[in-house]
Amino acid sequence: MNWISTQFARHWRNIHYGAIIVLSLAITFWPVQANRVLGQVIIGGLYYPFFKIQTAIQVLTLREANVRELRGSLAQASLQISLNEEAVRENKRLRSALGFEPPSGYRLMPAEVISVSGYRLPITAVINRGAKDSVYVNQPIINQQGLIGRVTDITTDFATVQLLTDPANRVAARVESSREMGIVRYVSGSTMILDNFPVHGAVAVGDTIVSSGLGGVYPPGLRVGIVASVQRGEHEPFARVTLEPVANFHSIEELFLLRPDDRR
Amino acid sequence: MKLIPYILYLLLVAFYEVILRDLTSIYGVALGLPVLLVLAVAVYKSELSAIWFGFAVGLVTAATSRPELSGWYALATAGLGSAAFHLRERLNLESLASKLLLVFGGALVYNVVMTVINRPDGFFFTLGTSVIPGALYTTVVAWVFFQFSEGRMTPQKMKAMF
User: Fold this and answer.
1) Binary contact (B63, A39; C-beta < 8 A)
2) A141-160 burial by CB neighbour count: b if 16+ within 10 A, else e?
3) Can you tell me the distance from the alpha carbon of B35 to that of B41, in angstroms, rounded to the nearest whole number?
4) Based on the structure, what is the number of domains in chain B?
5) Does the global pTM surpass 0.80?
6) Which of B42, B62, B114, B144 satisfies CB 3.0 to 4.6 Å to B85 for a cystine?
């Protein structure tokens, strides 16, 4: 016993080395099944919690990717719904424009508004028709509601429209029923008025004002506005007639250029 | 020999093998964290700790990759621990360069031995794309570790740098 403990104390390092070599060789040369069992024991004891963490991370990553994909699909679906709703609205507008007839002696050319500009109220608009479509300066523009304005500037593909809401734009007009004349203009920051109308002229609230055709720009008979109020001063030569425009200038989209049949 | 720190090291090896290895790989070049741990134990602890810890690390790393080669893995890693310990006894490891040289040499020899044990098809290809870059990567990480462990780099110094 004493001899053994002496030998152990003298060769303790070699014994450890020998044990490691023997164990390693035993593990190397014992059956593969035993190696697998050893692997399973190590995996079960040391790796298991980390495999659980790894699986949880993978599941979370997968779910996050799914959520991201679903969000993308949802955004796309929302966009598609908005586009569809817009298409439905456009369809309604175009259907109402289908039966729209131009004044006698004129043809219609449809145009789309690309942009509008103006402070509070739009006073000019740009349309997608230009010189290549034979658009010309002062060409009248209307929509289903009535007179909109005239072309003031042209490029190859686009044209600028001066709307009736521009205070510089005036329309020779008359009361549809009484045929008495005046000049329609927009008072900046106020409303549309029928100017130069005689104080004793026959006009009443609700009368329709149409273009007279005398200015040389707009053809006669285009609806401009409805009389909203009439004020007659005792010593004034002209009545103050305010109009409600027939066209809604805040929502112009599809317009029509009027072209005389005899113009090429 | 207190066992708890070594069990924690083995858990760290398992954590690295399962989760960190892929995250820390750069273009397929993996960090040799098990090698680093064995070398650290060999440098800072006793000879017996180094060889038995190396033996255990070999078994742990083989368990998920090549269980049929567990014995060779264990023997190679225990040999690394022993060699590193004897080098530490014979060399002056005070300077950072000598420590890094030990890490680089240890990682390189260990990677080569492991490559030989695994017998891949293209040995020299593996040597160029995985073994040597892996040893360099491990050395760089060891350099960062020594910078912090020996107080050359502190959070205050890092803040001052940036």
Assistant:
1) yes
2) bbbeebbbbbbbebeeebbb
3) 10
4) 1
5) no
6) B42
Closest chain B CA to residue A21: B75
Domain edges within chain A: 106-260
Residues on chain B touching A53 (C-beta within 8 angstroms): 18-19
Residues of chain B neighbouring A26 (CB-CB closer than 8 A): 71
Contact A39 B70 (CB under 8 A): yes
Which residue range(s) make up the domain with B81? 4-161
Q: How many residues does chain A have?
A: 264
Side chain identity, residue B135: A
Q: Are B88 and B106 in contact (CB under 8 A)?
A: no
Tens-place pLDDT, residues B21-69:
888 888 888 888 999 999 889 888 888 899 999 999 999 988 888 888 8
User: Which of B18, B78, B82 is nearest residue A54 as measured by Cβ atoms?
Assistant: B18
**Contact state of B60 with A46 under an 8 Å Cβ cutoff:** yes
- Cβ A224 vs Cβ A183: under 8 Å: no
Question: pLDDT class for A50, splitting at 50, 70, 90?
Answer: confident
A21 CB neighbours in chain B (<8 A) are 75
Question: What share of chain A has pLDDT > 70, as a percent?
Answer: 98
Query: What is the percentage of chain A residues whose pLDDT exceeds 90?
Result: 48
Give A-chain residues touching B70 at CB under 8 angstroms. 27-28, 35, 38-39
Contact B82/A32, CB-based, under 8 Å? Answer: no
pLDDT number for residue B118: 79
Residue B147, Cα to own-chain centre: how many angstroms?
A: 17
Q: Domain A106-260 falls in which CATH fold? A: Thrombin, subunit H (2.40.10)
Q: How many beta carbons lie within 10 A of that of residue A117, not counting itself?
A: 11
Question: In this structure, are residues A123 and A147 in contact, taking their beta carbons and an 8 Å threshold?
Answer: no
What average pLDDT does range A62-77 have in this prediction? 94
- Crossing angle of helices A12-29 and B47-65, rounded to 10°: 10
- State in Å, rounded, how far the first CA of chain B is from the last one: 42
